[in-house]
Amino acid sequence: MIKFSDVTKAYQTDEPVLAHCSLSVPEGSVYALVGKNGAGKSTLLKLAAGFLCPDYGEICFQDMPVWENREFHMNDYQGAGKELFEKEVLAEMKRSE
Q: Which of 49, 39, 60 has its CA nearest to residue 87?
């Protein structure tokens, strides 16, 4: 299960992309993220994968904090782009099966 608890993430603006987001996705569930451009869909996935650290709140995967248990940080991969993000998300999904 992945669980977001009161997660807030802002970039260089004062307005957060995600503000006080809380959700739980039980193991084996399938969800779709839909919304307009800039709604925070990619940010939510990058936070879940540990590529970004929340400004506030906690994200846990199988009851372990995601950010504290990552073997890398997004800064290590700057410039790698969409392909790396997709590759890492798929690898993470396979490891959790």
A: 49
- HEC sequence for 34-97: CCCCCCCHHHHHHHHHCCCCCCEEEEEECCEECHHHCCCCHHHHCCCCHHHHHHHHHHHHHHCC
Which residues are 7's β-sheet partners?
21
How do residues 27-48 score in pLDDT, each as one tens digit? 889 888 899 988 899 999 989 8
Beta carbons within 10 angstroms of residue 41's beta carbon: 16
Point out the residues of the chain with pLDDT beneath 70: 67-97
